[in-house]
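Can anyone check this?
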Amino acid sequence: MDITSEDALVDAVKGASGALAVRGGGTRGVPAVGDVLSVAGLNGISLYEPGALTLVAQPGTPVADIEAALAQENQRLAFEPMDHRGLLGTTGTPTIGGVMAANVSGPRRISVGAARDFLLGVRFVDGRGAIVKNGGRVMKNVTGYDLVKLMAGSFGTLGVLTEVSMKVLPRPETQATLVLLGLDDVGGVSALARALGSPFEVTGAAHDPAAQKTMLRIEGFETSVAYRLGQLRALLTTTGAEMDVLDEKASESMWMTVRDVAAFQGQSGDIWRVSCKPSDGPAIAARSGAEAWFYDWAGGLIWLRAAPGHDVRTQIGTFDGHATLVRADASTMAQFGMFHPETAGVARLTAGLRAQFDPKGIFNAGLMENAA
Protein backbone atom coordinates (compact mmCIF):
# COMPACT_ATOMS: atom_id res chain seq x y z
CA MET A 1 0.00 0.00 0.00
CA ASP A 2 1.58 3.28 -1.14
CA ILE A 3 0.69 6.30 0.99
CA THR A 4 0.84 9.77 -0.55
CA SER A 5 -0.97 11.87 2.08
CA GLU A 6 -1.50 11.95 5.82
CA ASP A 7 -5.25 11.54 5.35
CA ALA A 8 -4.66 8.38 3.30
CA LEU A 9 -2.43 7.07 6.07
CA VAL A 10 -5.14 7.70 8.66
CA ASP A 11 -7.67 5.80 6.53
CA ALA A 12 -5.24 2.92 6.00
CA VAL A 13 -4.54 2.54 9.71
CA LYS A 14 -8.20 2.78 10.70
CA GLY A 15 -9.14 0.24 8.04
CA ALA A 16 -6.34 -2.22 8.79
CA SER A 17 -7.54 -5.73 9.58
CA GLY A 18 -4.09 -7.08 10.39
CA ALA A 19 -0.43 -6.23 10.77
CA LEU A 20 1.20 -3.44 8.77
CA ALA A 21 4.91 -3.50 7.83
CA VAL A 22 5.93 0.17 7.78
CA ARG A 23 8.45 1.01 5.07
CA GLY A 24 10.26 4.12 3.87
CA GLY A 25 13.13 3.73 1.44
CA GLY A 26 13.48 0.00 2.10
CA THR A 27 17.22 0.13 2.78
CA ARG A 28 17.30 -1.44 6.24
CA GLY A 29 15.91 -4.91 5.47
CA VAL A 30 14.04 -4.87 8.77
CA PRO A 31 12.09 -8.11 9.28
CA ALA A 32 8.40 -7.52 9.97
CA VAL A 33 5.15 -9.24 9.03
CA GLY A 34 1.97 -7.87 7.49
CA ASP A 35 0.92 -5.79 4.53
CA VAL A 36 3.60 -3.35 3.43
CA LEU A 37 2.68 0.24 4.23
CA SER A 38 5.03 2.47 2.23
CA VAL A 39 5.38 6.12 3.19
CA ALA A 40 7.96 6.85 0.50
CA GLY A 41 5.31 8.97 -1.22
CA LEU A 42 5.24 11.37 1.75
CA ASN A 43 8.12 13.28 0.27
CA GLY A 44 9.44 16.81 0.41
CA ILE A 45 11.01 19.56 2.49
CA SER A 46 8.16 21.71 3.80
CA LEU A 47 10.25 24.31 5.63
CA TYR A 48 13.93 25.24 5.70
CA GLU A 49 15.16 28.29 7.59
CA PRO A 50 18.96 28.38 7.41
CA GLY A 51 19.17 31.33 9.78
CA ALA A 52 17.22 29.41 12.42
CA LEU A 53 19.14 26.17 11.71
CA THR A 54 15.79 24.42 11.28
CA LEU A 55 14.44 22.06 8.63
CA VAL A 56 11.06 20.32 8.42
CA ALA A 57 10.48 17.40 6.06
CA GLN A 58 8.10 14.54 5.34
CA PRO A 59 9.38 11.05 6.22
CA GLY A 60 9.83 9.78 2.66
CA THR A 61 12.20 12.60 1.76
CA PRO A 62 15.53 11.12 0.60
CA VAL A 63 18.44 11.94 2.89
CA ALA A 64 20.39 12.93 -0.23
CA ASP A 65 17.81 15.62 -1.04
CA ILE A 66 18.10 17.06 2.46
CA GLU A 67 21.89 17.00 2.36
CA ALA A 68 21.86 18.74 -1.03
CA ALA A 69 19.59 21.52 0.27
CA LEU A 70 21.77 21.98 3.34
CA ALA A 71 24.97 22.03 1.30
CA GLN A 72 23.71 25.05 -0.64
CA GLU A 73 23.70 26.94 2.67
CA ASN A 74 26.96 25.38 3.90
CA GLN A 75 25.09 23.38 6.53
CA ARG A 76 24.76 19.66 7.28
CA LEU A 77 23.15 16.86 9.27
CA ALA A 78 25.81 16.81 11.94
CA PHE A 79 24.86 13.39 13.32
CA GLU A 80 26.21 11.82 10.12
CA PRO A 81 23.56 9.14 9.32
CA MET A 82 24.86 5.83 7.99
CA ASP A 83 23.94 4.45 4.57
CA HIS A 84 23.16 0.75 5.21
CA ARG A 85 22.89 -0.39 1.60
CA GLY A 86 26.48 -1.54 1.11
CA LEU A 87 26.56 -3.48 4.37
CA LEU A 88 23.13 -5.09 4.03
CA GLY A 89 23.12 -5.57 0.27
CA THR A 90 19.82 -3.70 -0.03
CA THR A 91 18.60 -1.24 -2.64
CA GLY A 92 16.21 1.66 -2.31
CA THR A 93 16.81 5.17 -1.07
CA PRO A 94 17.64 6.19 2.52
CA THR A 95 14.91 8.48 3.84
CA ILE A 96 14.84 10.89 6.75
CA GLY A 97 11.90 9.06 8.32
CA GLY A 98 13.87 5.83 8.39
CA VAL A 99 16.89 7.61 9.85
CA MET A 100 14.85 9.07 12.69
CA ALA A 101 12.74 5.97 13.30
CA ALA A 102 15.93 3.95 13.80
CA ASN A 103 17.94 6.77 15.45
CA VAL A 104 20.72 6.25 12.89
CA SER A 105 23.82 8.04 14.17
CA GLY A 106 27.33 8.01 12.72
CA PRO A 107 30.87 8.56 14.02
CA ARG A 108 30.23 12.16 15.06
CA ARG A 109 27.81 10.97 17.75
CA ILE A 110 30.63 11.15 20.30
CA SER A 111 30.83 14.92 19.93
CA VAL A 112 27.41 16.23 18.83
CA GLY A 113 24.99 13.55 19.99
CA ALA A 114 22.65 11.09 18.30
CA ALA A 115 20.01 11.66 15.63
CA ARG A 116 17.35 11.95 18.34
CA ASP A 117 19.21 14.91 19.84
CA PHE A 118 18.60 16.88 16.61
CA LEU A 119 14.91 16.03 16.41
CA LEU A 120 12.86 19.06 17.47
CA GLY A 121 9.37 17.81 16.70
CA VAL A 122 7.37 14.97 15.20
CA ARG A 123 3.98 14.43 13.65
CA PHE A 124 2.70 10.87 13.32
CA VAL A 125 -0.35 8.63 13.07
CA ASP A 126 -0.81 6.24 15.99
CA GLY A 127 -2.35 2.76 15.99
CA ARG A 128 -5.86 4.16 16.42
CA GLY A 129 -5.50 6.32 13.33
CA ALA A 130 -5.19 9.53 15.32
CA ILE A 131 -2.82 12.29 14.25
CA VAL A 132 -0.40 13.22 17.02
CA LYS A 133 1.97 16.21 17.04
CA ASN A 134 4.63 16.79 19.64
CA GLY A 135 7.57 19.14 19.97
CA GLY A 136 8.40 21.71 17.36
CA ARG A 137 9.40 25.29 18.05
CA VAL A 138 7.20 25.56 21.14
CA MET A 139 8.46 22.20 22.50
CA LYS A 140 5.20 21.88 24.44
CA ASN A 141 4.48 18.39 25.74
CA VAL A 142 0.75 17.93 26.24
CA THR A 143 0.74 14.14 26.46
CA GLY A 144 3.03 13.59 29.42
CA TYR A 145 5.46 11.75 27.12
CA ASP A 146 8.52 13.07 25.35
CA LEU A 147 7.27 11.75 22.04
CA VAL A 148 10.16 13.23 20.12
CA LYS A 149 12.58 10.97 21.97
CA LEU A 150 10.19 7.99 22.01
CA MET A 151 9.69 7.98 18.26
CA ALA A 152 13.44 8.14 17.56
CA GLY A 153 14.56 4.53 17.79
CA SER A 154 11.08 3.00 17.99
CA PHE A 155 11.48 1.45 14.49
CA GLY A 156 7.91 2.33 13.57
CA THR A 157 6.34 0.28 16.37
CA LEU A 158 4.59 3.20 18.11
CA GLY A 159 3.35 5.16 15.11
CA VAL A 160 4.02 6.14 11.52
CA LEU A 161 5.86 9.43 11.07
CA THR A 162 4.36 12.00 8.71
CA GLU A 163 6.66 14.93 9.51
CA VAL A 164 9.93 15.57 11.33
CA SER A 165 11.42 18.87 12.44
CA MET A 166 15.19 18.94 12.87
CA LYS A 167 18.03 21.11 14.01
CA VAL A 168 20.89 21.41 11.50
CA LEU A 169 24.40 22.82 11.97
CA PRO A 170 26.93 24.78 9.92
CA ARG A 171 29.57 22.83 8.02
CA PRO A 172 33.08 23.47 9.41
CA GLU A 173 35.74 25.09 7.26
CA THR A 174 37.93 22.00 7.10
CA GLN A 175 38.82 18.69 8.73
CA ALA A 176 41.82 16.40 9.12
CA THR A 177 42.49 13.02 10.71
CA LEU A 178 45.41 11.92 12.85
CA VAL A 179 46.20 8.24 12.21
CA LEU A 180 48.20 6.18 14.71
CA LEU A 181 49.76 3.03 13.29
CA GLY A 182 50.65 -0.26 14.95
CA LEU A 183 48.52 -0.24 18.11
CA ASP A 184 46.62 -3.34 19.26
CA ASP A 185 43.00 -3.18 20.47
CA VAL A 186 43.79 -2.20 24.05
CA GLY A 187 46.38 0.35 23.02
CA GLY A 188 44.15 1.79 20.30
CA VAL A 189 41.08 2.20 22.49
CA SER A 190 43.25 3.67 25.26
CA ALA A 191 44.63 6.25 22.81
CA LEU A 192 41.11 7.12 21.70
CA ALA A 193 40.06 7.63 25.32
CA ARG A 194 43.01 9.92 26.00
CA ALA A 195 42.20 11.99 22.92
CA LEU A 196 38.53 12.32 23.86
CA GLY A 197 39.50 13.31 27.37
CA SER A 198 41.62 16.15 26.00
CA PRO A 199 40.37 19.69 25.25
CA PHE A 200 41.05 19.30 21.53
CA GLU A 201 37.48 18.57 20.37
CA VAL A 202 37.79 15.26 18.59
CA THR A 203 34.75 14.54 16.37
CA GLY A 204 35.62 11.00 15.26
CA ALA A 205 37.41 8.21 17.13
CA ALA A 206 37.75 4.75 15.56
CA HIS A 207 40.14 1.79 15.61
CA ASP A 208 40.63 -0.81 12.88
CA PRO A 209 42.29 -3.93 14.35
CA ALA A 210 42.87 -5.52 10.95
CA ALA A 211 45.02 -2.62 9.78
CA GLN A 212 46.15 -1.59 13.29
CA LYS A 213 45.01 1.96 12.53
CA THR A 214 43.69 4.29 15.21
CA MET A 215 41.89 7.34 13.77
CA LEU A 216 41.06 10.70 15.32
CA ARG A 217 39.16 13.41 13.42
CA ILE A 218 39.46 17.15 14.06
CA GLU A 219 37.11 19.72 12.46
CA GLY A 220 36.87 23.49 12.46
CA PHE A 221 38.76 26.53 11.18
CA GLU A 222 41.99 25.67 9.39
CA THR A 223 44.31 27.31 11.94
CA SER A 224 42.47 25.66 14.83
CA VAL A 225 42.61 22.24 13.17
CA ALA A 226 46.36 22.56 12.60
CA TYR A 227 46.95 23.60 16.20
CA ARG A 228 44.84 20.83 17.70
CA LEU A 229 46.46 18.19 15.48
CA GLY A 230 49.84 19.27 16.78
CA GLN A 231 48.64 19.08 20.35
CA LEU A 232 47.17 15.61 19.83
CA ARG A 233 50.45 14.43 18.32
CA ALA A 234 52.29 15.60 21.41
CA LEU A 235 49.71 14.08 23.75
CA LEU A 236 49.90 10.65 22.10
CA THR A 237 53.65 10.47 21.57
CA THR A 238 53.94 8.14 24.57
CA THR A 239 51.90 5.48 22.74
CA GLY A 240 54.96 4.77 20.62
CA ALA A 241 52.83 4.63 17.49
CA GLU A 242 53.88 5.98 14.13
CA MET A 243 51.64 8.87 13.09
CA ASP A 244 50.25 10.18 9.84
CA VAL A 245 47.79 12.94 8.94
CA LEU A 246 45.01 12.74 6.36
CA ASP A 247 44.08 16.02 4.69
CA GLU A 248 40.50 17.21 4.26
CA LYS A 249 39.61 15.16 1.18
CA ALA A 250 41.22 11.94 2.40
CA SER A 251 39.77 12.42 5.88
CA GLU A 252 36.24 12.92 4.59
CA SER A 253 36.49 9.81 2.41
CA MET A 254 37.90 7.70 5.21
CA TRP A 255 35.16 8.62 7.69
CA MET A 256 32.50 7.71 5.13
CA THR A 257 33.98 4.19 5.09
CA VAL A 258 33.88 4.12 8.90
CA ARG A 259 30.30 5.41 8.93
CA ASP A 260 29.09 2.79 6.45
CA VAL A 261 31.24 -0.09 7.83
CA ALA A 262 32.85 -0.52 4.42
CA ALA A 263 35.34 -3.07 5.83
CA PHE A 264 32.52 -5.65 6.08
CA GLN A 265 30.73 -4.84 2.83
CA GLY A 266 30.72 -7.80 0.47
CA GLN A 267 32.00 -10.08 3.25
CA SER A 268 30.10 -13.24 4.19
CA GLY A 269 28.77 -13.87 7.68
CA ASP A 270 26.39 -12.30 10.17
CA ILE A 271 26.83 -8.67 11.22
CA TRP A 272 26.34 -7.63 14.85
CA ARG A 273 26.37 -4.15 16.33
CA VAL A 274 27.42 -4.00 19.98
CA SER A 275 26.99 -0.90 22.13
CA CYS A 276 29.03 -0.94 25.33
CA LYS A 277 31.27 1.03 27.67
CA PRO A 278 34.30 2.06 25.58
CA SER A 279 36.74 0.68 28.15
CA ASP A 280 35.01 -2.72 27.93
CA GLY A 281 35.22 -2.85 24.13
CA PRO A 282 38.43 -4.87 23.64
CA ALA A 283 37.45 -7.55 26.17
CA ILE A 284 33.94 -7.87 24.71
CA ALA A 285 35.26 -8.18 21.16
CA ALA A 286 37.84 -10.76 22.22
CA ARG A 287 35.29 -13.07 23.84
CA SER A 288 32.60 -12.60 21.17
CA GLY A 289 33.95 -15.40 18.99
CA ALA A 290 33.56 -13.15 15.94
CA GLU A 291 35.80 -13.50 12.91
CA ALA A 292 36.53 -9.76 12.66
CA TRP A 293 35.56 -6.52 14.34
CA PHE A 294 35.88 -2.76 14.12
CA TYR A 295 35.58 -0.04 16.80
CA ASP A 296 33.79 3.30 16.48
CA TRP A 297 32.73 5.83 19.14
CA ALA A 298 36.12 5.40 20.87
CA GLY A 299 35.34 1.73 21.50
CA GLY A 300 31.72 2.23 22.60
CA LEU A 301 30.42 0.80 19.32
CA ILE A 302 31.76 -2.49 17.98
CA TRP A 303 30.85 -3.86 14.58
CA LEU A 304 31.33 -7.64 14.51
CA ARG A 305 31.40 -10.05 11.57
CA ALA A 306 30.66 -13.58 12.78
CA ALA A 307 30.17 -16.99 11.23
CA PRO A 308 26.56 -17.60 10.12
CA GLY A 309 24.44 -18.68 13.08
CA HIS A 310 27.10 -17.84 15.68
CA ASP A 311 25.45 -16.71 18.94
CA VAL A 312 27.42 -13.58 19.78
CA ARG A 313 25.18 -12.66 22.73
CA THR A 314 25.82 -15.95 24.52
CA GLN A 315 29.55 -15.73 23.85
CA ILE A 316 29.78 -12.20 25.22
CA GLY A 317 27.67 -12.97 28.27
CA THR A 318 26.39 -10.31 30.64
CA PHE A 319 27.71 -6.81 29.98
CA ASP A 320 26.67 -3.20 30.29
CA GLY A 321 25.17 -2.65 26.84
CA HIS A 322 23.33 -4.46 24.07
CA ALA A 323 24.03 -6.48 20.94
CA THR A 324 21.86 -6.02 17.84
CA LEU A 325 21.79 -8.54 15.01
CA VAL A 326 21.97 -6.29 11.96
CA ARG A 327 22.42 -8.82 9.13
CA ALA A 328 21.66 -12.55 9.02
CA ASP A 329 19.52 -15.01 7.13
CA ALA A 330 15.87 -15.41 8.08
CA SER A 331 16.35 -18.50 10.24
CA THR A 332 19.15 -16.92 12.28
CA MET A 333 17.19 -13.71 12.68
CA ALA A 334 14.17 -15.71 13.87
CA GLN A 335 16.32 -17.74 16.27
CA PHE A 336 18.17 -14.86 17.96
CA GLY A 337 15.96 -11.87 17.24
CA MET A 338 17.21 -8.56 15.95
CA PHE A 339 17.19 -6.74 19.27
CA HIS A 340 18.87 -7.56 22.57
CA PRO A 341 16.51 -9.10 25.15
CA GLU A 342 15.14 -6.50 27.53
CA THR A 343 15.15 -6.78 31.30
CA ALA A 344 11.78 -7.54 32.89
CA GLY A 345 11.29 -3.95 34.04
CA VAL A 346 12.13 -2.42 30.68
CA ALA A 347 9.94 -4.99 28.91
CA ARG A 348 6.96 -3.94 31.05
CA LEU A 349 7.54 -0.28 30.21
CA THR A 350 7.87 -1.11 26.52
CA ALA A 351 4.66 -3.14 26.53
CA GLY A 352 2.85 -0.30 28.28
CA LEU A 353 3.97 2.23 25.69
CA ARG A 354 2.89 -0.01 22.82
CA ALA A 355 -0.50 -0.51 24.46
CA GLN A 356 -0.90 3.27 24.62
CA PHE A 357 0.13 4.10 21.07
CA ASP A 358 -0.62 0.91 19.13
CA PRO A 359 -3.27 -0.98 21.12
CA LYS A 360 -4.06 -3.36 18.23
CA GLY A 361 -0.38 -4.23 17.77
CA ILE A 362 -0.46 -3.60 14.02
CA PHE A 363 2.77 -1.63 13.44
CA ASN A 364 5.79 -3.79 12.55
CA ALA A 365 4.34 -6.65 14.54
CA GLY A 366 6.87 -9.08 15.95
CA LEU A 367 9.86 -6.83 15.32
CA MET A 368 10.65 -6.30 18.99
CA GLU A 369 8.71 -9.10 20.64
CA ASN A 370 11.91 -11.16 20.87
CA ALA A 371 13.29 -8.53 23.21
CA ALA A 372 11.36 -9.65 26.26
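Reply from J.R.: I decoded it. The longest helix spans residues 222-235.
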